[in-house]
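ok so I'm stuck.
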Amino acid sequence: MQSPILPKWIRSQLPSATAVQAVGRGTYGKGLATVCKEARCPNQGKCIERRTATFLILGNRCTRNCSFCGIAHGVPSGPDPEEPRRVAEAVDSLGLRHTVITSVTRDDLSDGGAFVFAETVHSIRNMVPETSIEMLVPDFQGSLVALEMIANAEPDVVGHNLEMVPRLYPSLRPNASYSRSLRVLEIFSIQAPGAIVKSGIMVGLGETAAELKGLMNDLASTGCRVLTIGQYLRPTERQVPVERYVSLEEFEDLRELAISLGIACVVAGPLVRSSYDSETILRKLKSVIHKT
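replied:
not stuck anymore, here's the structure
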């Protein structure tokens, strides 16, 4: 099945050559990866110019093989004990105002990599204390120990993506669990009261309006305060095709619906991704939410 023709309203801003070189020196030159590149994010230019970045820790090979994701699947190498320090050095050298830390899913590790997440946050706090930190984490197979470790790291924002409506999980996210992901967000809302809890979904995969409303209700019930909604864009021919492209008007309708159902901040649009404009969201919510 071929994806429909890309509509004219979907455009991405290309980064300047200078910005690309700066990020290359500050990340890949230190043996680090960014999800911006590995997942083929369309917003690399905007984030680079705003001095924000999303680091991909724990390797660049995922132990799961979701059929929508552009990140490589395979057997990953063991965690690098020096990675937290090197990420902090990159944040410092790049002069980042806001840093997002995410990872591949590491089901091969007993804690899913939670310890490395926590150590990375501690390293950044020690080296660049003025930088705000967002953690976008996998489900850690629901491990309470791992989730507590993440909460105790005290990030400014902690996120876990639902990605899609539950009906699509068996075919597109067979190793994940919708109910488990909701529970992860609920636990963060309880155990990390100082952090803003966040999630993200994609549309254009065949979901219905009723399914999206149900997902938003479920999300609001967990205590999640931020939702990002973006268009699924097929990374390569190996991933599942796009079912349809959602119009700009529909994105605005989805944003308004989610807010009406109790989610405090919703960012929706074709090129919106999990960490899209995350620094701006954090600044707004710190003044509005902290803590109602």
